[in-house]
């Protein structure tokens, strides 16, 4: 097993919940990213996810990872397509958009990416990506058959499927900038059905209260993106809240 997987597992074994900070290469400003990242690390963020759906390039991805190089926190690619693969990262979320209607987003892009990832010896974190509720740009581009926020039956079935496929992570995504995040009640029910796969939750998380609720409901990793750019102080509060939780 890879290094990043081990770091995540060790923290989870200690009863911690992890927070990942998402940087969208299309939105971040290269001049301010170092100081923002420093504050996030000091507040306890456990990982940097770098990726986005529109306006992203490998060059910008590389520049961001270079700026983040000094931080020991893992730098993980959150890819929307095959152009976002770089050997500079510590790992990549090797994702399949399980509720897509387009085979390209389920196994097509992954087929093209697989030999590249192997050649670069990039650590791969097998992830079932499931888009719920608002869905946002990722749902539109990924042709997701978006699952309604309250359809627990479907969310659970997709999550079990991901686990049965052997995926280490189930990423429940409400979409970047979603007006509402995934419901904590949905997370707690889904958690009961998963024995091995870890739950990543993201999309529309803007307060420490909701972040805490999601963590206590069973989310293993909480992702926040937009709030970092919109209200850094608030984002740091979320990170601190998550880092103090012990389950
Ligand atoms: C999006 O889950 C992430 O892919 C984070 O969403 O930008 O709304 O925090 P936000």
Automatic annotation (TrEMBL):
<dbReference type="GO" id="GO:0120536">
    <property type="term" value="F:heptaprenylglyceryl phosphate synthase activity"/>
</dbReference>
<feature type="binding site">
    <location>
        <position position="24"/>
    </location>
    <ligand>
        <name>Mg(2+)</name>
    </ligand>
</feature>
<dbReference type="GO" id="GO:0005737">
    <property type="term" value="C:cytoplasm"/>
</dbReference>
<keyword id="KW-1208">Phospholipid metabolism</keyword>
<feature type="binding site">
    <location>
        <begin position="203"/>
        <end position="204"/>
    </location>
    <ligand>
        <name>sn-glycerol 1-phosphate</name>
    </ligand>
</feature>
<dbReference type="GO" id="GO:0046474">
    <property type="term" value="P:glycerophospholipid biosynthetic process"/>
</dbReference>
<keyword id="KW-0594">Phospholipid biosynthesis</keyword>
<dbReference type="Pfam" id="PF01884">
    <property type="entry name" value="PcrB"/>
</dbReference>
<keyword id="KW-0444">Lipid biosynthesis</keyword>
<feature type="binding site">
    <location>
        <position position="53"/>
    </location>
    <ligand>
        <name>Mg(2+)</name>
    </ligand>
</feature>
<keyword id="KW-0808">Transferase</keyword>
<dbReference type="GO" id="GO:0000287">
    <property type="term" value="F:magnesium ion binding"/>
</dbReference>
<keyword id="KW-0460">Magnesium</keyword>
<keyword id="KW-0443">Lipid metabolism</keyword>
<dbReference type="GO" id="GO:0047294">
    <property type="term" value="F:phosphoglycerol geranylgeranyltransferase activity"/>
</dbReference>
<feature type="binding site">
    <location>
        <begin position="225"/>
        <end position="226"/>
    </location>
    <ligand>
        <name>sn-glycerol 1-phosphate</name>
    </ligand>
</feature>
<keyword id="KW-0479">Metal-binding</keyword>
<comment type="function">
    <text>Prenyltransferase that catalyzes the transfer of the geranylgeranyl moiety of geranylgeranyl diphosphate (GGPP) to the C3 hydroxyl of sn-glycerol-1-phosphate (G1P). This reaction is the first ether-bond-formation step in the biosynthesis of archaeal membrane lipids.</text>
</comment>
<dbReference type="InterPro" id="IPR008205">
    <property type="entry name" value="GGGP_HepGP_synthase"/>
</dbReference>
<feature type="binding site">
    <location>
        <begin position="171"/>
        <end position="177"/>
    </location>
    <ligand>
        <name>sn-glycerol 1-phosphate</name>
    </ligand>
</feature>
<keyword id="KW-0963">Cytoplasm</keyword>
<dbReference type="InterPro" id="IPR038597">
    <property type="entry name" value="GGGP/HepGP_synthase_sf"/>
</dbReference>
<dbReference type="InterPro" id="IPR039074">
    <property type="entry name" value="GGGP/HepGP_synthase_I"/>
</dbReference>
<comment type="similarity">
    <text>Belongs to the GGGP/HepGP synthase family. Group II subfamily.</text>
</comment>
<comment type="pathway">
    <text>Membrane lipid metabolism; glycerophospholipid metabolism.</text>
</comment>
<protein>
    <recommendedName>
        <fullName>Geranylgeranylglyceryl phosphate synthase</fullName>
        <ecNumber>2.5.1.41</ecNumber>
    </recommendedName>
</protein>
<dbReference type="InterPro" id="IPR010946">
    <property type="entry name" value="GGGP_synth"/>
</dbReference>
């Amino acid at each position: 097993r890879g290094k990043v997987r081990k770091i995540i597992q060790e923290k989870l074994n200690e009863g911690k919940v992890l927070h990942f900070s998402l940087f969208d290469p299309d939105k971040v400003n290269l001049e301010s990213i170092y100081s923002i990242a420093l504050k996030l690390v000091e507040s306890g963020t456990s990982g940097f996810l770098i990726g986005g759906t529109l306006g992203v390039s490998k060059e910008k991805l590389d520049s961001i990872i270079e700026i983040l190089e000094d931080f020991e926190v893992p730098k993980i690619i959150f890819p929307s397509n095959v152009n976002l693969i770089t050997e500079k990262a510590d790992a990549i979320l090797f994702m399949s958009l399980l509720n897509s209607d387009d085979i390209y987003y389920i196994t097509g892009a992954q087929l093209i990416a697989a030999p590249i990832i192997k050649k670069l010896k990039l650590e791969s974190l097998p992830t079932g990506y499931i888009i719920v509720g608002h869905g946002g740009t990722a749902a539109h581009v990924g042709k997701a058959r978006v699952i309604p926020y309250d359809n627990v039956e479907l969310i659970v079935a997709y999550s079990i499927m991901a686990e049965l496929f052997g995926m280490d992570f189930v990423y429940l995504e409400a979409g970047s900038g979603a007006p509402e995040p995934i419901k904590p009640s949905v997370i707690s029910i889904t958690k009961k059905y998963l024995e091995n796969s870890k739950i990543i939750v993201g999309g529309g998380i803007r307060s420490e209260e909701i972040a805490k609720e999601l963590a206590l409901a069973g989310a293993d990793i909480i992702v926040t993106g937009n709030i970092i750019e919109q209200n850094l102080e608030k984002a740091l509060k979320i990170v601190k809240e998550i880092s103090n939780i012990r389950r």
